[in-house]
Structure prediction request, 366 residues.
Amino acid sequence: MDSEGSVGGSGSPKYQRHDPPPTSRRRQSAAARRQSPTGIEQARAFLQQFYNSKSTATEYDLEKVFVCKISEIEWLVLCHEYNLDDERRQVWPRFSFNSHTSTLKIYAMQSWLHESIIAFLHDHFIILFNRVLPQQLRKRVKIHTSVEEDVFKAEHLGSSKIPDMGISLRKNDSPKRELQWALEVGFSETYEDLQEDMRLWLTGHPTCSMVVLIKITESPAYRCPLPFDLDTCDELNIARDSPDQIEEGDFSLQGEYGPVEFKGYQWVGQISEVYLEAWTRNPRTGRPRRRGGRMSILPPANESPQFRLADLVPVDDPQMTSLDWEELRTELKDCLRLQAVKRCRAWIKECIKRAGLDDGEFDGAS
Prediction:
């Protein structure tokens, strides 16, 4: 007779009484997976919550940047499952995949504060280039905000990302444009995430030579102040059947840069800090390095951030670009109420969604 725990004549293992049978181990493994979903499972749940207007899932705050660990194969599977072709990835939500760190980021919602900074720099650079660049060079320069870059090298091969703004240059008669400069703005995104974006551009992209990071700090960080419950709308006399009728004038600005309140609740915190960093590639080591110190936009500093024209386009010109940062600070003030309106409307629509009501049952709920 075979002893317990040895392999019998049939070739099947026998187990001690205290050993769990293999089916039990499989159940435990399945339970562990349910408790800790994999990166691709998290990404599927997030996209299901975003794309399915009937879904009542609440795991994720769509205003925050979704981040998970996912392999390149899993990223390709996800693209196939959700038909994330190049054109769809250029609209919202937007996707960033870093093959070197196996990190997927999904940006589900725009914010007024984030977009105001991009628009400010975009408009300034267009005016600048039209004014100072020779016509032949100007024709080869492109400023863009929705072009996905996927030309990454070495360990970053397979990565893809859309910069918040990019400046690309067409070399002579070639139709191909090469990214020279990238902007990344963080509002819901952390500074650490911005740094990872910067490293992707400067260590992974062969032609990008400068990355500018701008971080907006909201204090305290936003959390919806009310429960997602239609009864709360009624208690506060908020028109739940027409959220789009809520307007800027309904909100009160409590300070120069916030907070913003409505019905006694805070919908935007104070914008306590906005700063800028310029990063380049060390010509000796190839590693990213910050040029100069961190530059404050808000609160205003004695010296305002400036860019060299030669950092933006390949010209032998020491000219510095002077931006009207006071104009941007005014834009940020104007966007505070708009951001509050956006969040309040989103709260009402989410209440309707979680109540399981069809969009068509309420005007303006789509």
Remarks:
- Confidence is low (pLDDT under 50) at residues 1-23, 360-366.
- The radius of gyration is 26 Å.
